[in-house]
Specification:
With 183 residues, this protein is of the alpha+beta class. It has helices at residues 4-8, 17-26, 29-38, 81-93, 103-108, 110-118; strands at 49-54, 57-63, 68-73, 97-102, 152-153, 158-160, 179-180. A hairpin with a 2-residue loop joins strand 1 (49-54) and strand 2.
């Protein structure tokens, strides 16, 4: 369900409207694959927007109900660590959770990415509303989720997978590949 007050309280740069439309039409493969799992309430009944303008940024996916941004990072992000850090800090300052997922993971193991998101604290039913959202007037609170079983969390927010074959999904079917996230 769309939370209009939260949705409209976010800063918006109208100059980015055409660019957001272009990005939606361009259809990056990994974003389209993930979008097919998220759209029309298919993911936990939640409403997501694709290529949502927030301030001077366009985020890949945004869920107003959970105050969460999903970013799919391809190789173009390899040289943009400073830009991504600035962007994440801005979004976190608005009280938003930012979850980064590698493009490669979406393409090679979409089931593991979906399982990761299903169990992520940002999407739990009892997950608290971030207090730093402009509509609440509170301070920003960052949410650090524990790594998945067998994974290692580094101080920079990157989560490393276990050694090959060391940890499996609950169903025991596939080894998870690296998924990075920052909060």
């Amino acid at each position: 369900m769309r939370h209009t007050q939260r949705y409209q309280a976010l800063p918006y740069n109208p100059k980015l409207k055409e660019r957001a439309k272009e990005l939606r039409r361009a259809g990056n493969l990994s974003e389209v694959l993930l979008w097919n799992q998220l759209k029309r309430g298919q993911f936990k009944g939640l409403d997501f927007d694709r290529q949502k303008i927030i301030g001077n940024f366009i985020v890949d996916f945004y869920c107003a109900e959970k105050h969460t941004v999903l970013e799919v990072d391809g190789s173009s992000h390899d040289d943009k660590a400073d830009y991504d850090a600035e962007r994440d800090a801005y979004l976190s300052g608005l009280g938003l959770n930012v979850i980064r997922i590698r493009d490669k993971d979406v393409k090679q193991n979409l089931a593991a990415v979906t399982a990761f998101l299903l169990h992520h604290p940002a999407f739990e039913d009892n997950h608290p509303t971030p207090s730093g959202h402009p509509s609440t007037g509170g301070e920003s609170r960052q949410h650090h989720s524990p790594p998945m079983e067998g994974w290692t969390a580094k101080l920079d927010g990157v989560v490393l997978p276990p050694l090959e074959g060391a940890a499996k999904l609950d169903r025991g079917s596939q080894t998870l590949s690296p998924i990075t996230k920052r909060f």
